[in-house]
Amino acid sequence: MDQRKGTIDILGIPVDNVTMGDALSAFDGFLNGKSMAWIATPNAEIVSQASGDSSLAQLLMSADLVIPDGVGLLHASRMLGRPLRERVAGIDFAHCALKRCAANGVSVYFLGGRPGISEQAAANKMRDIPGLRIAGTHHGYFEQSDTASIVEAINESGAGFLCVALGFPKQERFLLENKNALHMKAGIGIGGSFDVWAGALKRAPKIFRSFGLEWLYRLGQEPSRIKRIATLPLFLVRVAAQKVSGA
Ligand code: UDP
């Protein structure tokens, strides 16, 4: 993929050193590609989890594009002396990718979230993005045995871009395991984005984002995230150790 401008290794996970513009150019390339490409959007919590588990690390490494979703990754890359150029928030990237789909006549499928959420998110996005066609939606609480029929429904919808919001690592597994069966141009794992797009969760206000405190705002809305956020100090300690070891 020629738009891939090198990766930064953070705790053994290669993260693409892309700007939003680079990531969108790569997406344009995917829309014109022959086989399906998929995009991972890890933040520091996810990189931290994957770095301690080789199967999760392999999962992220098999993505065609790994965009740096959180400021934690930016801090880590600076600590390592190999700074990522910018944070590319998965939710913002996905919104821009939807605009690209609308402009190119590519329809989209939303998979994930609690019942009703993907439909609402789809309705809101079609209202906000002129020309966007969301060809189908399905909630994210299905049995493994339903996967084949969901893949069939996605294919039958004629969508070319699949947004999957099942949380990490379920969404990445879904994309990787079904990549060959899905007749898509591109797919992305986007965590809780449908909840925000549907209006069920609020995105952190700009002031929180500009100080790198989006995680704190999310914690206020979803206190159950505390366990994941509590891994962040250890994440930074491990990054410092990576720096010292020169890896
Ligand atoms: N979710 C789902 N099916 C599941 C588990 C989770 O559809 O079996 C959805 C959940 O409703 C939420 C999203 O996946 O909308 C998880 O969001 P989170 O922000 O936790 O994602 P992560 O940060 O793990 O990528």
Describe the protein in words.
The protein is an alpha/beta fold. It folds into two domains: 7-198, 3-Layer(aba) Sandwich (Rossmann fold); 206-236, no CATH class. Helices cover 49% and strands 13% of the residues. The chain is built from 13 helices and eight strands. A six-stranded parallel sheet has the order 4-3-8-7-5-6, sandwiched between helices. Helix 6 (117-128) links the parallel strand 5 and strand 6 (134-138). Helix 1 (20-31) packs across helix 5 and helix 2 (44-51) crosses helix 3. The chain is globular. The structure holds uridine-5'-diphosphate. Uridine-5'-diphosphate binds next to helix 9.
Strand order of the largest sheet: 4-3-8-7-5-6
**Biggest sheet features:** 6 strands, parallel
Bound molecules: uridine-5'-diphosphate
How many domains would you count in the coordinates?
Answer: 2
Topology order in helix (H) and strand (E) letters: EEHEHHEHHEHEHEHEHHHHH
Mean pLDDT: 94
Count of strand segments: 8
Query: Which structural class is indicated by helix and strand composition?
Result: alpha/beta
Poorly predicted residue ranges:
none
Helix proportion range:
40-55%
Our Rg estimate from Cα atoms comes to 17 Å
Report the end-to-end length measured between terminal Cα atoms.
25 Å
Strand content: 5-15%
How many DSSP H or I helices?
A: 13
Q: For this structure, what is the CATH class of the largest domain?
A: Alpha Beta
For this structure, the CATH topology of the largest domain is Rossmann fold
CATH architecture of the largest domain: 3-Layer(aba) Sandwich
Overall geometry comes to globular
